[in-house]
Amino acid sequence: MPSIHVMSPTLASQVAAGEVVERPASVVKELVENSLDAGAKFVRVEIRRGGVGMIKVTDDGSGMSRADAELCTKRHATSKLSSLEELFEITHLGFRGEALPSIASVSRFKLCTRQQQDLEGWEIRIDGGLEHEPRSSGVSPGTAIEVADLFYNTPARRKFLKSAETEASHVEHQIRLHALAYPQVRFAYKRDDQLVFDLSATTDLRVRISALTDASTAAALIPIETTIGPGISITGFLLPLSEARRTRKGQYVFMNTRPVEDQLINRAIRDGYGGFPTGLHPALFLYMEVEPALVDVNVHPAKKEVRFRRSADVVNTIVEAIANTLQKHARQEIHAAAPEPERTLPPAHSTTAPHGEIPARSTNPGSAFPAAARPAPASSAAQPPLSSSARQSHGPVPPPTLRAIPLKQVPATQGKLDFHRQEDEETARNAHENAALERDASAGFSYLGTLRQQFALFETPEGLVLMHPKAARERIIFERLRARREAPMPSQQLLDPVVLDLDPRDFAVIRQFAPHFDQAGMAVTPFGQNTIRIESIPALLELENARAFLLELVDRLTQSEFSRNAKRVAYETFIGEFARKSAWRERISPHRAPAILKDLLACEVPYCTPGGKPTLVNYSVPEIKRKFGLQA
Fold first, then answer.
1. Does residue 534 sit in helix, strand or coil?
2. Which residues contact 147 (CB under 8 A, 6 or more apart)?
3. In this predicted model, what pLDDT tens digit does every residue of 40-50 receive, in sequence order?
4. Which pTM was predicted?
5. How far apart are CA 327 and CA 386, in angstroms?
6. Rounded to whole angstroms, how far apart are CA atoms 117 and 311?
């Protein structure tokens, strides 16, 4: 066993970089935090090649003297802590003194800084931990730090980075977090010499949120009632249920201007809504001000997690703030709708859907078949008060309207494969060729009817079979998409293309899977920075809310793990999610059940969905007899 020895300063810094510098976005986070701690009113971030080629952060903060500039790149050198007591009342974003030496040890690092009262500034250069002699420099007041060739001397670390597109999306997301936390600071962001955004300073948080989201999201913001608890105050904005996501991408939580991720806060948010559909997470902008002595931010290397000393007070205040806001918003909408009693509104159906998905408004999610002459069920009690009222809002903060997408009446064969006609031709040809060999697989099934407008019942020589039509359609669509991988699916052109502003991370996922969207018949094209345009949707898909469908699909794809060479796995995961979303949004008439069964039994794996859920449930005659106590 080798003898114990003390690591060199450079090696120690590179080891520390493994915790602090995970990816280019981590570098941007540390540098921007230093700028904000220095009192900057303007922060400019520039990157190239996703941040691997170059990261440059420039601010107009207080700047540093030569002595401070030389010290700031030493390990454990900081201006923010001088005693043990201050460690438990931290008011700055950074405080450990590890970030700059860690970054400088794995990059080509250059720092230029000048204080307002000084006539000249200073330049510090470090290449992979090797320091150069400081020299004077003519720079503007403030600090500019440039990090080039990140991980150039640790190639193993660079191998774990994603594509430049993905890394750039994480960088932009990090800048957006700081911009949301500091609306009073101007932020500018350039990527590959192109300006992505330049956000003016503002005292109105709604203005900053509106600048970083799309118009429909900004219009749906519901102000949180300012709530004060023991050592804590809560404010911010909620969004309606229609903006809920399968991941927590729609949740922005800040504690003392610090973006945080905490399970305690997440549970408190759900409790504030009084319950939430399984698998979904509410979208909101939550701002907490907590007395520094009541929270410990020194529990995570990247300072993402925190620990509260009086967690019950935090939970109770968050729950109270959200619950009171929802109740007040519901009352406002009731009063706003009261003057129009004669107006006929669509019936409100239960919004419970499989896998916790967001159901389409045109579909009755509680049944596979539309019920013709049946009273509409009441809204699900499991939903928060916002869920039903937000979709029928006439108040001062209207949510985005779910509108039907108009389609051009064009032949399905125009530039595309005629899906239905080819399917009929193939079915007829195969039936003719195989007639002498085998009979129709569904010939032994006698259709009896439906159970609770949701399950199709068939009698067979062996007993009784129940089929879930939507689960069956999911399997059918999946296998048809997989069989036609080389040929694009037929699509229906949108008369009015849908333009969506997306989170940069969602935009990167769509860019990554763009070929799969095209093959599935969904034309999604870039339309500016983090903006896409949906020009067509698959002919087999009935769709009212394009944004909800697309974001649900993105969340599913984001949660999946792919290797860079596993194109087949990526495509099958894509079409699996696409088939699930398509099938569960269809409106299926009862008379289609026999045809669906026939198509299902023609599949390679007819007995379960791509996700493993059953499509058919069989009850044999002996099993039924045993239930009645009869001899089998």
1. strand
2. 27, 31, 54, 55, 56, 103, 107, 108, 109
3. 999 999 999 99
4. 0.63
5. 8
6. 45
